[in-house]
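Example S7 (structure tokens).
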């Protein structure tokens, strides 16, 4: 026969239910170096509002006009967002004098029909280091990314001409959320260290209600055969790997006290997975793990995110897993699922991007209202007492 106290103990075991939050990272590849970038934009604007993600970290929407288009298209589905406000200006991004000097240097020392390859040569081979630095970040962005109408510019001098077009490029990042955000940050690594990059690198962050802190970023990319070439900037890096580690350390210095903490984005590093996925800067990946993180998709998905079977992939010679939703190791047991996204081929014959997306579903214990919890407990106590009385009367 159950005692009164055992009945009370049994009925007071009220367990909290779990809610889940889906965190997704996706490099959209909206820049002239990725094929069909303008043709894919309408499909992105149609697809992103239908995302099942609760928090969505997007990379490579470099132009201000494209970022605003995404924000407008997704505003109903994702009412909260963070991005780097760049205050568009019709003032040409390049001053004619340093631009002319830089172009003469680049064309002389780095002859090529590909303007991106020319800038990479000058930037990473130290051929025109001082001339490129004199151009400034905004000018470099224009040379590589171009204007909304021309994309990768065939005529670099147009970056110094007032065409009436609103020149404005960004760090390429957008953080969208269905959940309220607070304490938002939009910052650049170059702001902290004084570097100049081909593409301005940075990060976004926010406190997500009832979840924790989310950071959205995009680390520098390896450049084909120039993996170990010196980096261009006042702070000298001996390799892209060293540069990535420095940026990871900046994030750790700023956010290590936050918990739970999630790092999302295209990190351009990752582990080898079996025989099908090659490692990309595995030492940097291990560094992130050593800082107390896991990338759940490594084991739960085990597939590449930048893949040779993607018809938009124009660089690289291997399948690599470089897009991550990092979760702190101490909270890894709360991960419910992980999956790869945006694999389907569009009617124009290509996927949404040259990267596939990664989604991680994270379970959040829901704290119960203490008053409601006591009401439930009191009702359970009354029921237990009546049951005990009934059993005593029968005895």
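Recovered sequence:
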């Amino acid at each position: 026969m159950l005692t009164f106290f055992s009945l009370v103990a049994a009925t007071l075991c009220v367990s909290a239910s779990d809610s889940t939050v889906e965190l997704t990272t996706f490099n959209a590849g909206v820049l002239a170096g990725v094929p069909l970038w303008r043709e894919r934009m309408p499909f992105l604007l149609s697809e992103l509002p239908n995302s099942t993600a609760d928090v969505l970290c997007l990379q490579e929407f470099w132009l201000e006009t494209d970022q605003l288009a995404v924000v407008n298209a997704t505003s109903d589905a994702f009412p909260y967002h963070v991005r780097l406000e760049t205050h568009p200006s019709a003032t040409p991004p390049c001053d004619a004098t340093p631009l002319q000097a830089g172009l003469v240097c680049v064309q002389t020392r780095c002859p090529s029909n590909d303007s991106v390859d020319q800038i990479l040569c000058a930037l990473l081979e130290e051929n025109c280091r001082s001339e490129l630095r004199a151009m400034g970040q905004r000018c470099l962005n224009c040379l590589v990314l171009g204007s909304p109408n021309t994309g990768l510019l065939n005529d670099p001098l147009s970056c110094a001409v007032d065409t009436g077009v609103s020149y404005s490029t960004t760090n390429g990042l957008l953080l969208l959320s269905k959940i309220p955000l607070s304490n938002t940050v939009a910052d650049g690594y170059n702001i902290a260290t004084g570097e100049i990059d081909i593409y301005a690198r940075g990060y976004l962050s926010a406190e997500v209600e009832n979840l924790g802190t989310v950071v959205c970023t995009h680390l520098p990319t390896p450049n084909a055969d120039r993996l170990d070439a010196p980096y261009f900037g006042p702070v000298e890096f001996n390799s892209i790997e060293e540069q990535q580690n420095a940026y990871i350390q900046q994030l750790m210095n700023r956010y290590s006290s936050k918990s739970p903490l999630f790092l999302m984005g295209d990190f351009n590093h990752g582990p080898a997975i079996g025989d099908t996925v090659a490692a990309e800067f595995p030492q940097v990946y291990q560094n992130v793990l050593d800082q107390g993180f896991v990338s759940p998709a490594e084991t739960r998905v085990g597939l590449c995110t930048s893949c040779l079977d993607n018809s938009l992939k124009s660089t690289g010679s291997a399948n690599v897993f470089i897009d991550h939703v990092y979760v702190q190791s101490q909270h890894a047991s709360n991960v419910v699922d992980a999956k790869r996204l945006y694999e389907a081929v569009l009617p124009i014959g290509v996927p949404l991007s040259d990267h596939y997306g990664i989604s991680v579903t994270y379970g959040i214990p829901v704290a119960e209202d203490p008053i409601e919890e006591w009401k439930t407990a009191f009702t359970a106590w009354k029921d237990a007492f009546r049951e005990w009385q009934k059993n005593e009367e029968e005895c």
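Notes on this example. The chain is about 35% helix and 20% strand.
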